[in-house]
Amino acid sequence: MHLELNRQSGILLHITSLPGPHGIGDLGLGANSFVDSMKEMGQHLWQILPTNPPESLYHSPYSASSAFAGNTLLISLEALQKDGFLEDRDLADFPQSVKDRVEFDKVDPDRRALLQKAADRFPKKAPTGMLAEFNDFCIQNQNWLDHYAMYCHLAEKYNHVNWTQWNTPLRSCDPKAIQVEFAQNQQEINRTKILQYFFYHQWQNLKEYAGSQGVRIIGDIPNYVAHDSADVWANQDLFKLDEAGHMIGQSGCPPDFFVKTGQIWGHPIYDWPKHEKTGFKWWIERIGHLYEMVDMVRIDHFNGFVKYWEVPAMDKNGLNGFWMHAPGEKLLDTLTKELGKQPILAENLGEAAPDAEPLLKKFGIPGMKVLQMSFGNGDNPAEMDSSNVVYTGTHDNDTTVGWFRTGAGQGNLRTKREIERGRKQALALLGSDGSEIHWDMIKLALDSPADIAIIPLQDILGLDSRARMNTPGTVGQNWMWRFDPDLLTPDLKERLLSLTTAAGRS
Q: Which residues are catalytic?
């Protein structure tokens, strides 16, 4: 799993945050245009968030209904139009949307109606070569696609209640009941497969284009999967569930930098001994699948491979959780044996970070250093080890401008005294007056010894807290931010290119 890289840098930006005409960033022209912009700025790494379909109303990419399927909201409607599966009139009436936000409640139904229309036209309008490609896609991805398509059908049939409330044979994923259901609903189930083909067809086009421009994509894989997901429904024995399929324990974390009562993530806990007995087959398939999509993989909550915070299933906060150990070394040994040495980045933040350190060193996996979290505690972020990946901030942090300007209790747990101490240290180390704190932090990241530096686009644009992607421990206002392409001016591109070149990363 060793990662061998020269000094490089890149940008953190999720697909949903791209500009475009249909309410949400997608895999179409906006994505290609951003690749072009990255090349102009001398950036070679594009880090995205998970592209799986969110399972909840809150649209978190870190809680998906499948660890394998693609989020169909990311399918480019323009590309479907170009391929002949949508007509001009289909897109002519698409509602206008705001530029800087994804209005999921509006975008979701409008796009899904058009996607269904395109999928229904596909069998009749697709050229022979595309139909053959679709059939190959279904065969190659049968290990997850069949269950996912059936799960989507059953979720719709049962009005999207949790799968534990389906009738017993279907709840238990009984093969005979599944076979009967498939025979009676082939067209609907096949529609889901077509939509997945659309997603992966467009994704491969984007990946190929990015590669042709010298841009490599860093994919993101959550440690956990959602309880209400095709993965848990189809593999119930791999999770800590009772006989009815309900969670016995749930994922979370103890009190931390973000939430003083700890966090509830609400995912089921892995039954690790069962995974070991299978030779970690599900994990091999999962991570191997992602490597077919991206060039590098960032593992979110990597610490959970060493030890994890298990919270009783009915609890509403993380205070009563307890630490449990996971077989991370055995898992990584198996992944290396089965998949070869693939580039991995680890999100190793949090209380369990020291426990994960030996595992990172053994497998040569870089961990993360976040500059926003480095000030005020006496550390000198400029002295970090070269094997780290340095960030000004992540999707869970405020923007750098927001971090510098906000006071106590404004999306953080820092006291007024801690904030003042951190600002004083930051300004002293940066030699800054704070007027361009985001550029000062970007320069620090780029000049650092770290082999890889990643900058959220919000920081390059100098945006405040209104552009924050996610505030941990909150729901309802996250994952919505989009960027206005007019803000990414030629001057900004040139400035980032100049700093990147001077730091020896372009």
A: 300, 347, 396
User: What interhelical angle do 490-502 and 437-447 show, nearest 10?
Assistant: 30
Per the CB < 8 A criterion, the answer to whether 11 and 460 are in contact is yes
The DSSP 8-state label assigned to residue 241 in this structure reads: B
Q: Which of 348, 332, 351, 328 is nearest to 340 (CA)?
A: 332
3-state SS of the chain: helix, strand, coil percent to 5?
A: 45, 10, 40
Mean pLDDT of the chain: 93
The residue whose two tokens read 């996610």 is 470
- 288/339 Cα distance (integer angstroms): 7
**One-letter amino acid for residue 84 of the chain:** G
Model pLDDT for residues 442-485, shown as the tens digit of each residue: 999 999 999 999 999 999 999 999 999 999 878 889 999 999 99
302: nearest Cα among 365, 390, 255, 218: 365
Look at 85-89, 388-392, 416-420 and tell me which has the smallest mean pLDDT. 416-420
Kindly list the distances between the CA atom of residue 84 and the CA atoms of 79, 90, 120, 148, 375, in Å, as whole numbers in the listed order. 9, 11, 12, 26, 54
Residue type at 130 in one-letter notation: M
We report the CATH number of the domain holding residue 280 as 3.20.20.80
Per the document, the length of the chain is 506
Name the helix (H) or strand (E) containing 329: helix 328-339
Q: Where residue 488 falls among pLDDT bands split at 50, 70, 90?
A: very high
62's tokens: 């870190």
Least confident of 33-37, 108-112, 267-271, 412-416: 412-416
| Buried residues in 2-31 as b, exposed as e (16+ CB within 10 A) | ebeeebbbbbbbbbbbbbbebbbbbbbebb
430 found inside a domain:
yes
Predicted pLDDT at 413: 62
Number of domains in the chain: 1
Q: Given a cut of 70, is residue 255 above it in pLDDT?
A: yes
- Dihedral (CA of 466, 470, 471, 476) sign: positive
Contact 30, 19 (CB under 8 A): yes
Q: What are 278-306's pLDDT values in tens digits?
A: 999 999 999 999 999 999 999 999 999 99
Sign for the pseudo-dihedral over CA of 182, 187, 188, 191:
positive
Domain residues for 268? 8-22+37-74+127-196+216-502
- Which residue from 287, 387, 294 is spatially nearest to 332, judged by alpha carbons? 287
Work out the average pLDDT over 8-35.
Answer: 97
- Gap between the Cα atoms of 133 and 121, Å rounded: 16
Angle at 232 between CA 229 and CA 238, to 5 degrees: 160
Is residue 3 a part of any domain in this protein? no
